[in-house]
Amino acid sequence: MTDHYAVLGVKSDATPEELKRAYRKLARELHPDVNATEEAAIRFKEVTAAYDVLSDPQKREMYDLGGDPFSQGGFNSAAGFGFGDIVDAFFGGGGTRGPRSRVRRGQDALIRLQVTLEEAAFGTTREIQVDTAVVCHSCEGQGTTAESTIVECSMCRGRGEIQSVQKSFLGQVMTTRQCPQCTGFGSLNPHPCAECAGDGRVRTRKTITVNIPEGIEGGARIQMTGQGEVGPGGGPAGDLYIEIIEQDHEIFQRRGDQLHATLTLPMTAAALGATLDLDTLDGPVPVTIKPGTQSGSTVTLKNHGMPRLRASGRGDLIVHLDIVTPTALTPEQEELLRTLAKLRDEEKPAPTFDQHGSGLFGRLKDAFSGR
C-alpha cells in the first residue's frame, strides 16, 4: 500500500495544517500549468491522492488502521455489511460518510480536430485554442482571500453530516444526512476569493500544442494527460482527448494503410499502352499501362500508401483503371475505327459468354452468392 505520508513528505502525526502546507508546496511545483513533464503529472496525481486521503479525518483513520479508504467496504469489507450498512439499506441512508474534500479532480475534455490526408500521413503539429478551467492565480487554488482561512462548520463540527433520532414502530432510529450549512464539506469559507468565488479555479482560453503522429486514422483519439479542466479547490486537472476527423481527399480514398485512386484512360491508351505521371503523396510517380489493359484492372504502387501508425513501413497505393469509350466521333475518326473493326473482323461481332464466370455476369453471380 502506498505510503501517503511519505508522498507528501510529512510525519504520520502531521496536523491538518501541516498536511495542507505540504500539499500546496508540492502542487505549486508539480501542477501541469507549471511543470508539463510526464513525470510531474504522475507525481501530481500521487500527491493529490495522498492529500485526498489524509485531509479527510475518516479516510485517514481508516488508512492508519491498514484499510483501503477507496474500497466500498473499507478495511473490513470482507466481513460483509456492518450495522451502519443495514440501517442505510432500510432507512434510505448510504453514500460517502464524513466530510467531502474541497479538492477534487477536474473533468476530462474532448475536442474534435480536422486534419487533411497529408497531415494524417506524415504527421504535423497543430496549435488549438481551448476554453478550460485553470488554477486561480489570486488564491492559488485555495478559494479564500489572503487574510482568511477555511473554518470548521459549527453545525456538524467538521463531520459534514448531521444525525437525528426518530421514533418508528421499530423504536428509535438514528438517521444521517448531509449538513445543510456546509453541504457536506465539514467546513465553511467565510471570505471566498473574489476572483474565483471560492471555487479555486477560473475559466480562461489557452493555447495547446498537439502533436499528430504519422499514420493516424480518423476516429482515433490522442490523450493529453493533465490538459483537461483543473478540479475544484485547485485539484488535479483531467485529461484532454483530441479526436481526429480525417477530411475527404479529392483523389485518394483511404482503407486502413492502403490508398485507392481511380485513373481514367482513353480507349487508345489502354489498347496501345502508355506511361503516365500519377500524383501521389510523395509527388509524381510514373505508372506504366500495359497494351491491351481492360477497364477495371488495377496497378499497385508499392509503399506509396499510408505510413503505419507506431510501426515501420507503408501500405500500397492501388490505382483502379477506368477505360473510357468515346461517344462523339468526327467522320474521320469514325472511318478509322470502322477500318480497324474490318481489319479485326469485328464489323458484326457475335455475342460470346464467359463459361468460366470471370466476366460481368460471373462477377454478378459471385456478388449475389457471396463468393
Helix-strand blueprint:
Blueprint: H1 4-8, H2 16-30, H3 38-54, H4 57-64, H5 83-91, E1 109-115, H6 117-122, E2 124-135, E3 151-152, E4 161-168, E5 171-178, E6 187-188, E7 201-212, E8 221-224, E9 240-246, E10 253-255, E11 258-266, H7 267-272, E12 274-280, E13 283-289, E14 298-301, E15 317-324, H8 331-343, H9 360-369
Parallel strand pairs: 1-9, 11-15
Antiparallel strand pairs: 2-7, 3-6, 4-5, 8-9, 10-11, 12-13, 14-15
Helix pairs in contact: 2-3
Summarize the structure in words.
By secondary structure, the protein is of the alpha+beta class. The chain is 24% helix and 27% strand. It contains nine helices and 15 strands. It has helices spanning 4-8, 16-30, 38-54, 57-64, 83-91, 117-122, 267-272, 331-343, 360-369, and strands spanning 109-115, 124-135, 151-152, 161-168, 171-178, 187-188, 201-212, 221-224, 240-246, 253-255, 258-266, 274-280, 283-289, 298-301, 317-324. It has a four-stranded mixed β-sheet with strand order 10-11-15-14. A three-stranded mixed β-sheet has the order 1-9-8. A hairpin with a 2-residue loop joins strand 4 (161-168) and strand 5. Helix 2 (16-30) packs antiparallel against helix 3.
